[in-house]
Structure formats: C-alpha cells, structure tokens
Amino acid sequence: MDIQITLTENPSPKPQGPLGFGRLFTDHMFLMSYDEDNGWHDAHIEPKRPLKLDPAASVLHYAQAVFEGLKAFKGDDGRIRLFRPDRHAARFARSFQKLCIPYLPEGCFVAAVKRLVQVERDWVPSSEGAALYIRPLVIATEPFLGVRPSTKYAFLVICSPVGAYYARGFEPVRIWVETDEVRAVRGGTGAAKTAGNYAASLHAAKLAKERGYDQVLWTDAKAHEDIEEVGTMNVFAHVGDEVVTPPLRGAILPGVTRDSVIRLLRDEGRRVVERQLTISEVREAFAKGHLHEMFGTGTAAVVSPIGELGFPDDDLIIGDGRPGPLAQSLFQKISAIQRGTGQDVHGWMHPIDEA
To answer: Which of 27, 187, 205, 331 could cross-link 303 (Cys pair, CB 3.0–4.6 Å)?
Structure first.
C-alpha cells in the first residue's frame, strides 16, 4: 500500500511526567477513503486535525462506526514493537462484516498502523507501564437520511501515549454485578468492536460508580445469571482447579488479551475451560472457599484483578481483596513479552522497522 506522508511543521513538545490515559495525542494521523467507484484509496499520513463531516453523515445518525485498540512498546533494546497487530486486523475485519462496511484487507490495517508508528516513534514512551495506544477506526461519511449501509467511509488511525488505564495501577477493582441493564445480546453486535456497544454500557457504569464501584459485571439479557464481560474487558475466574472464561457466542468481544491469557495458561499446563459461568456458581464457589480469584483482561489494562463483587444485599470480597497470584503472574508475563524482556514463543511482537 502506497502511503503518502506530510509531516507537521509545528511538532508538539513530548509530554513530561504522568501520561494518564487517552488524553494526549501525537502530531499525525492516518487517513484513507472509500467510495463505490474507487474502493479504498488515498492512503496518507498528515498532521492531526479536526474532521469535516456533513451534519447528515451516516455515522452521526445510524452509528456505522467500528474501532480497534492496540499498543506499541519500546523495549529495553530501544526497538519499538506492536503487540499482535494481525489479530487486531482480523477482528477489525469481522466488525466490518457485522456492520456492513466494505472489506478492508488486513494487510492494509497492519501497514497503516506500522507506518504511522514509524512516523510517531519519538512519541512511544519508555517508562514502565507506559505505551503508545493506537486507535484505528472507520466511520460512515455519506450524507443521507435513511436506514441502509453508507456508500462512503473514512478509515483513520490516531495515537496516544498512555500510562496505566486505572490511576491506582494494579490494584483490585470493585465491581457491581449488573442485573438490570445489558450491554449486548446474542445475535446483536456484542462480538463486534462497534461504538454503539460502548454507548450502551455508559449508563450502568455511571450508576455503578455512583454506588462506589469501578465498573460493572455484565450478565445475560434473559435471566441475568450467565456472566459475560466485566466493564469493557473479558472476565476469568479461578474456580477449584479450573480457570474459567465465558465462551464466545455472539454477545462477547473476542479479546486479543483474552486469547493471549488462554495460551499462556495452557502453556503452563493449567486447565482452562471456555464454558458458561453463572452468578450462582460464583456464589457457591465463594461459600465453599473454591473461588480463588477473578480478573478482567483487555488491551488497555492488560490484566485487572477483581477484589470485590457488589450485590444489592451483600458484597463478595475475593482473595481478601488483594491481587491474586494468577493475575499477577499473567500481567508480568504479558508485560515482559511486550517489553522484549520475556521470551516471545508465539511470535506476538511485530517490530515496526519490518513494515
């Protein structure tokens, strides 16, 4: 893919001190357009700027928008590497299919991300726990009012240097068990990384925070018994001699970190089971002392230990409210692979100088 590059004449100073998450942005962005006559075309990198959208643009009315989130890391050897961009590209393509967006070759996704990170390599932080967060997205841009797929789209990639997702770092989170509102249902868009799924999660998350919790544990839409996700992350529970995570049946996003955790656990010889996990099973395991730990997994936080589950009538304190050994081990192993200090036996890291 031929990518034209126009560099900014006024580069921003690189941030000093704490980065936070998702508030700082690099100088450039990647753009590419689609229309029915030309297909995907005009791939270029230019200085980051506001978009110009017609008020009738389809994305503003019918929410044809999908995105991804992945990270670039600077290793101790000074090299910059992407974590599993091919896996993110494949999920991006599946999200396109669900939202009726014209196919974008996965190689184009990876090439766009690599080239932009090459341009922004000086923005990749080297401090522990920090990374360059990369946000590819596609939006429908055709100006029309009518419920059908758009005929025009924009593919963009922007970057943000980030620190830890949670300000307090690797501390266990307090989670409210949601038994009223739902994020997604089987047969819907839950398995696609589309903006509407996240909009649907905001109200319940806001109420949970007002109760003093960090996020919500999503349950199924019918009986509110089957566990699905925790906040915007996949969820795992160490129950007895099994590590259990809910199966991918259409309502759950197939997380890249989820897949990585499953592989690492199986590499260790642990019994990992993708099966339905219920609230009743968690309560029973807790009562019997068989619930050892729970944690969420995702690109932003990597591994996030769950210290407490909140219910209207009581709270369950998991593992005395401290991070469990499994969550700690997985976080350290994935972080080491991403930093280039751990052995990358699965070939997950992609150096950007091989674009």
So the answer is: 331
Indicate the residue type of 143: P
Q: Are 326 and 238 in contact (CB under 8 A)?
A: yes
Can you say whether the dihedral through the CA atoms of 289, 290, 292, 298 is positive or negative? negative
| First-residue to last-residue Cα distance in the chain | 11
pTM over 0.90: yes
Non-local (6+) Cβ contacts of 272 within 8 A are 242, 243, 244, 245, 262, 265, 266
Write out pLDDT tens, residues 143-175: 999 999 999 999 999 999 999 887 677 899 999
Q: Report the sign of the C-alpha dihedral through residues 33, 38, 39, 40, in that order.
A: negative
Strands 80-83 and 272-274: unpaired
User: Which residue(s) pair with 297 in the sheet?
Assistant: 234, 303
Q: Tell me 331's DSSP state.
A: H
Please state, for a pLDDT cut of 90, what percent of the chain lies above it: 93
Q: What is the pLDDT of residues 25-77, one digit of tens each?
A: 999 999 999 999 999 999 999 999 999 999 999 999 999 999 999 999 999 88
CA–CA distance, 154 with 152 (Å, rounded to integer): 7
Predicted confidence at residue 355, as pLDDT, reads: 42
Do residues 137 and 65 make contact, with C-beta atoms less than 8 angstroms apart?
A: yes
Find tokens 């210290």 and name the residue.
Answer: 307
